[in-house]
Specification:
Radius of gyration: 20 Å
Strand order of the largest sheet: 8-7-6-9-10-12-11
Shape: globular
Distance between the termini: 48 Å
Number of domains: 2
Order of helices and strands: EHHEEEEHEHEHEHEHEHHEEH
CATH topology of the largest domain: Rossmann fold
Number of helices: 10
Strand content: 15-25%
CATH superfamily of the largest domain: Vaccinia Virus protein VP39
CATH architecture of the largest domain: 3-Layer(aba) Sandwich
Helix content: 25-40%
Structural class: alpha/beta
């Protein structure tokens, strides 16, 4: 009688079969509904299957990088439309956010990054993408960004800005972000990375911020500062994918229409994020504690 194959988590199986480089990538594809097992789509990375299972179908990733899955979640949960909008992607890097914006109907995307040569080739050659490299969004002037405009008319400035920044706090760039926006239509989706917001004394050597209260305070600080600029929080969710070191990240939706995000809502989102990543044990990070 044949022994039954041992069971293992789906994300681990995908990595062991060489379909993904790591669990984080595998989990992102699973959550996006890109993985079928025995002909059925499964969206839970922790679902157990036999290790020797053969019938696995992985759809080609729809985005140039996993960042696309992060923004996709925000767009869906916040019910945001990018259709026919002029957008700016701050911290574009490879272009995951830019790609997601285009696939959601953006009219034009200014892909801005302090680096050079990182943007995916297909995006670099897309006529809807204006590539702005070697440019620090913290102090970039409108004329540095909107070089394609014959006349610098702020009614043609970005109305939807996405932010995926590293090694700098959102608080340090938000005022200039506002200066780069359409004065009447202002929507911002920002990826919050606690390790770059908490302050040196609160970030351990590992770079992974595990204290729930720090996460809550980081979000509160961003919200409070944004309100002083007349940019208000509409909604909040957690990123479906952790940062490279295992940090939990969040996506916040801000607009120029007055609104309020309660501390209760913030704590609920943080709790859900910890619960999700604790149960899924993504990237080996399963020890998050309140």
């Amino acid at each position: 009688m044949n022994q039954k194959s041992k069971k293992e988590r789906l994300d681990s199986i995908l990595v062991s079969k060489g379909l993904f480089e790591n669990k984080s990538q595998a989990q992102a594809a699973i959550m996006a509904g890109s993985v079928k097992v025995n002909g059925q789509t499964t969206t839970k990375a922790g679902t157990q299957f036999p290790q020797d299972i053969k019938d696995i179908d992985v759809a080609v990733s729809p985005y140039v990088s996993r960042g696309g899955f992060k923004l996709e979640k925000a767009i869906k949960e916040f019910n945001i439309s990018a259709k026919d909008k002029i957008c700016l992607d701050a911290g574009a890097s490879t272009g995951g956010f830019t790609d997601c914006l285009l696939q959601n109907g953006a009219k034009k995307v200014y892909a801005v990054d302090v680096g050079y040569g990182q943007l995916a080739w297909k995006l670099r050659n897309d006529p809807r993408v204006i590539v702005i490299e070697r440019t620090n969004i913290r102090n970039a002037a409108p004329e540095e960004i909107y070089k394609d405009l014959e006349i610098p008319d702020n009614s043609l400035f970005a109305e939807l800005i996405t932010m995926d920044l590293s090694f700098i706090s959102i608080i340090k760039v938000l005022e200039n972000i506002k200066n780069l926006m359409n004065p009447e239509k202002q929507e911002i989706i920002a990826l919050i990375k606690p390790q770059f917001e908490a302050g040196k004394g609160l970030v351990p050597k590992s770079g992974v911020v595990k204290d729930k209260n720090i996460h809550v305070n980081v979000i509160k600080n961003i919200v409070e500062y944004a309100c002083t600029l007349n940019v208000y929080p509409v909604d909040l969710t957690y990123s479906p994918i952790q940062g490279p070191a295992g940090n939990i990240e969040y996506l916040i939706y801000l607009t120029n229409k007055q609104n309020h995000l309660s501390e209760e809502k913030t704590r609920t989102v943080v709790d859900k994020a910890y619960e999700h990543f604790s149960s899924n044990q993504i990237s080996g990070q399963q020890n998050y504690k309140p």
